[in-house]
Amino acid sequence: MTENGIVFLLGLVTQDEANRATNLVQSVSGVQKIVKLFEYID
């Protein structure tokens, strides 16, 4: 979900999945801020 250049990432993920998603979003033009609301699973 995005709003005004702020991207919200949420869900049940592994640490690796969270890192990959965050790195991918950081490379998108127009992203000003990333808010992570992850619940980590093993």
Structure report:
It is a single chain. By secondary structure, the chain is an alpha+beta fold. It has one domain (2-40). It contains one helix and three strands, in the order ββαβ. The chain has one helix at 15-26, and strands at 2-3, 6-13, 33-40. Strands 1-2-3 form a three-stranded mixed sheet, covered by helices on one side. It starts with a strand and ends with a strand. The mean pLDDT is 96. This is BON domain-containing protein. It holds the Pfam family BON. InterPro entries: BON_dom.
Please identify the structural class as seen in this structure. alpha+beta
Work out the helicity level.
25-40%
Pick out the low-confidence regions.
none
On the 0-100 scale, what is the average pLDDT? 96
Element-by-element helix/strand order: EEHE
Characterize the main sheet. 3 strands, mixed
Number of helices: 1
What is the C-alpha radius of gyration, as a whole number of Å?
10 Å
Main sheet: which strands, in order across?
1-2-3
Ends distance: 25 Å
The total strand number stands at 3
Tally of distinct domains? 1
Strand content: 35-45%
Shape: flat
